[in-house]
Amino acid sequence: MTSPENAGKTATRHVRCPQCGGDAEWSPANPFRPFCSARCKQIDLGAWASEQYRVPASQPDEQRSFESTSPFSSRE
Ligand SMILES: [Zn+2]
Fold first, then answer.
1. Domain range holding 16?
2. CA 72 to centroid of ligand 1, rounded, Å
3. Three-class SS string for 36-67?
């Protein structure tokens, strides 16, 4: 007998598109995977780029203050 599970193994695998949550085809035929389309991939790349612009570089001051301030010096 043919079970539905066996039939699913040969079918094209689908994943959830991280962008729109829709069905995305996971196969060499879909160059945009894990996205469902070029549009969703573009949107995600754009979000990444703007996110990097918004995040400021780590403050170099942090290391310096850690070095000069010892936990004992704050004691009275
Ligand atoms: Zn999508």
1. 11-54
2. 55
3. CCHHHHHHHHHHHHHHHHHCCCCCCHHHHHHH
Question: How far apart are the CA of 56 and the centre of ligand 1, in A?
Answer: 29
pLDDT (tens digit, 9 = 90+) per residue, 43-68? 887 876 776 666 666 666 655 655 56
> Does residue 4 sit within a domain?
no
How many domains are there within the chain? Answer: 1
- Please check whether residue 22 is in contact with residue 16, taking contact to mean a CB–CB distance below 8 angstroms: yes
Q: Tally Cβ neighbours within 10 Å of residue 54.
A: 7
The CATH number of the domain where 21 resides is what?
A: 3.30.50.10
Residue 26 falls inside a structural domain: yes
Rounded to two decimals, the pTM is 0.48
